[in-house]
Request: fold
Amino acid sequence: MVMSLPTLRRAGLALAVSAFAFAGLAFAGLAFAGLARADDPPQPRNEAAAPAGQKGGRGGNAAQASPSAAEQHRLPGDSTTKQTLDLPGRTLNFAATAGSIRVFDDKGEPLADIATTSYELDGVDRATRPVTFLFNGGPGASSAWLQFGAVGPWRLPLDGEGLSPSASPEVKPNAETWLDFTDLVFIDPVGTGYSRVIASGEDARKRFYSVDGDVNSIALVIRRWLEKHNRLTSPKFVAGESYGGIRGPKVVRQLQIQHGVGVKGLILVSPLLDFREFAGTSLLQYVATLPSYVAVAREAKGPVKRTDLADVEAYARGEFLADLVKGEADKEATNRLADKVAELTGLDPAVSRKLAGRFDVSEFRRELDRKNGMVTGRYDASVRGFDPYPDSSSSRFGDPSGDALQAPLTSAAVDVLTRKLNWRPDGSYEVLNGAVERHWDFGGGINPPQSLSELRQILATDAKLNVLVAHGLFDLATPYFGTKQALDQLPAFATQRVKFVAYPGGHMFYSRDGSRQAFRSEVEALIRE
Reply:
């Protein structure tokens, strides 16, 4: 689905707020003045006088003055509509609110408007009704992927090879929506969806396009949404996809220690938890991807479940890793490894020997069906498409499992927000903003971003917190076995409360009906526990 993730190795690895002040935080050499408050503007400014649904202005004589840059770019006021969803065996009546939360710095100056879309079921006790906050990754992906692919009231069919840029963007009622058992709040980080920086100057943008600044803003938005909607007593859950695996544990930690908000459960969808093992010369990158390579090869012959890959997982963490560690200096080990990889994947044995059995993602995607001029997807390697340059000596292809989704998904998101929810911001909707990733500050030094430290901390801090981690077997953007290896290193007190599941499908495994239905059942069990 969804995200454009940073290129950290040859092929690249794809990876979708409260009245407390943060001051003196520093990261990557940038002094972060902090996000002081959200939504409520500082006095004496009177933005409440602005008519609902219009861009805010100033009261009194100030209304005659030229609008500030912030006022020119602000998002329109919230729009709440009543909705009815007719589904098999049930009808859901709910309130849908499309709007934004304004974030200020610690001096009371407006920084950004962060868009949210929330769905709250009618006829329930909201003091005890669960609420789940969801975001995607990228960095640079809006929440449209989760909202319209799996979780929200309406769903856009994401049928792999059956979907094209010219496919109809019409959404359908989603029988697998989570709204039956939890209210839903979708958050678009700055630079995605309609969310935008409204302060002038590049420094304001840098605050949000960074690991820590991004986490601070999302945690602040969650706290402010809870206050704004009188939901502080509700059971709270957080869900993140892809780079959301970096965001998720860090956001929960921020909520715990900075905002006084406890989270009952964390749901991670196709997450990346640690950049370190997917960069440079790390041997573990080959261990992480091998089971997915084999899953793709076997899926071409028939349905594949994770249990069908037990032999490959055992080989990957055993003999395969041992031969990798011996290195190419050991010719016998290298040939043994290369031949076994070719046998398991169906790749050309000569090519496998040439590459010493070490296929990076782009090489596998091209070599698997090169004889037919086809390449596999990165988000979903079971999807194949034409190589636009089949005779080129270099790889010059896109992602047949992801590129085709952006146009219909963008149109669907705009149509739902404007027509169904009656919220009409100006500007363009960014479903996947490459500029965000290009300008992202991942931090300096020798320690790439990882969230396993925060995952340990949040589980240690709250003995009632549970975590659900879900992956697709054919995902080459964030391979499932890489996450499984990382989770296996957690201490026993943590692993008892972390459940790992893997389904047929890719990064957006929920595009498959069976996988989406099974995942919904797991989420419902977590939230109702």
Summary: Confidence is low (pLDDT under 50) at residues 1-33, 40-66. The first strand starts at residue 25 and ends at 27.
